[in-house]
C-alpha cells in the first residue's frame, strides 16, 4: 500500500471528505422485474486518498463509480462529491457538477476520432468555459510524454498513447477527483504498467483524490485503501492500519 502522508482517518469530518455517500441504492430494469445493483452503500473517501474498488464482475463496482462520478443517478440515498450534492439532480445538473470537479478515465479511451490529441484534451475545457485551453492541453500532453504527438489523431496513436491522451483529458482541468475504470483493460501488461505509473504520477502532482476500479490485486496494493464489493454491498474495507474490516 502507498504511504500517502497524513491521510485523515475515515469519518474525520466532512470538511476533509471528497465523497460522502449514505444508503446509496441503484435499481435498474422494468418495474415488474427490478434488478438491485447497489444495496445501501455507505462510503466516505478523504480528499487526496487513493482508493481501489475490487470485486467480481457483477458486484456493482462500475455502477458505484458511475453514481459517484455523476454519470448515473442513484435510485435512492444521498451522495455528495467534491462539495456538490448530487442527490436530486437531473442529467443536466449532474453534467454541470462534473465539470472541473471530476476527471474520468475509462478502459475504452473514448477519444473523438476526428480530433487531434490536443483537441481531445482542450475541447471539454472549452465547453466548460475555461480559458487558455489549448495551452493547458499542450502542457498536459507534454506532462504525459506526448509533446511529439500533439497534432496526431487517435488512429495514429498506439493504445498506450491513446490512454495517455485520456489521462491528460481527465487531469487538465485540475479536478478534485479522478475516477479510473479498468484503465489498463485494453493494454498489454508492459504498457499497462507504464499507464498506471503515469496516472499515479499525475495524481500526486495535482493532489486529486483517485478512485480506481480494477481486478488486479497488485495495483490495488499500491493504493491507500482497498474496498471489495460483493453483490451490491461493501464486503471489506481496509482500515488505516492496513487491517481488513468486514462490513457490518
TrEMBL record:
Domain ABC transporter intervals: 19-248
One GO location term (cellular component): membrane protein complex
Top-level lineage group: Bacteria
Keywords: ATP-binding, Cell inner membrane, Cell membrane, Membrane, Nucleotide-binding, Transport
A GO MF label: transmembrane transporter activity
Pfam families: ABC_tran (PF00005)
Keyword ATP-binding included in the entry's annotation: yes
Transmembrane segment boundaries: none
CDD domains cross-referenced by the UniProt entry: ABC_MJ0796_LolCDE_FtsE
Family: Belongs to the ABC transporter superfamily. Macrolide exporter (TC 3.A.1.122) family.
Protein name: Probable ABC transporter ATP-binding protein
The organism of origin for this protein: Erythrobacter litoralis (strain HTCC2594)
Amino acid at each position: 500500500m502507498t504511504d500517502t502522508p497524513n491521510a485523515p482517518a475515515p469519518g474525520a469530518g466532512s470538511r476533509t471528505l471528497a465523497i460522502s455517500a449514505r444508503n446509496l441504492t441503484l435499481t435498474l430494469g422494468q418495474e415488474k422485474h427490478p434488478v438491485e445493483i447497489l444495496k445501501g452503500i455507505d462510503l466516505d473517501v478523504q480528499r487526496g486518498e487513493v482508493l481501489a474498488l475490487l470485486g467480481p464482475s457483477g458486484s456493482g463496482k462500475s455502477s458505484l463509480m458511475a453514481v459517484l462520478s455523476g454519470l448515473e443517478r442513484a435510485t435512492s440515498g444521498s451522495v455528495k462529491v467534491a462539495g456538490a450534492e448530487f442527490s436530486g439532480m437531473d442529467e443536466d445538473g449532474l453534467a454541470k457538477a462534473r465539470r472541473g470537479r471530476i476527471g474520468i478515465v475509462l478502459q475504452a479511451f473514448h477519444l473523438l476520432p476526428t480530433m487531434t490529441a490536443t483537441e481531445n484534451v482542450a475541447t471539454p475545457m472549452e465547453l466548460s468555459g475555461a480559458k487558455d485551453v489549448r495551452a493547458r492541453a499542450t502542457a498536459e500532453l507534454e506532462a504525459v510524454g506526448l509533446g511529439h504527438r500533439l497534432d496526431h489523431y487517435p488512429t495514429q496513436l498506439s493504445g498506450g498513447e491513446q490512454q495517455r491522451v485520456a489521462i491528460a483529458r481527465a487531469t487538465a482541468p485540475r479536478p478534485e477527483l479522478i475516477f479510473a475504470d479498468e484503465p489498463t483493460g485494453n493494454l498489454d501488461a508492459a504498457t499497462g504498467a507504464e499507464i498506471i505509473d503515469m496516472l499515479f504520477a499525475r495524481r500526486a502532482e495535482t493532489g486529486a483524490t483517485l478512485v480506481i476500479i480494477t481486478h488486479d490485486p497488485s495495483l490495488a496494493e499500491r493504493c491507500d485503501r482497498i474496498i471489495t464489493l460483493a453483490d451490491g454491498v461493501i464486503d471489506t474495507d481496509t482500515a488505516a492500519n492496513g487491517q481488513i474490516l468486514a462490513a457490518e
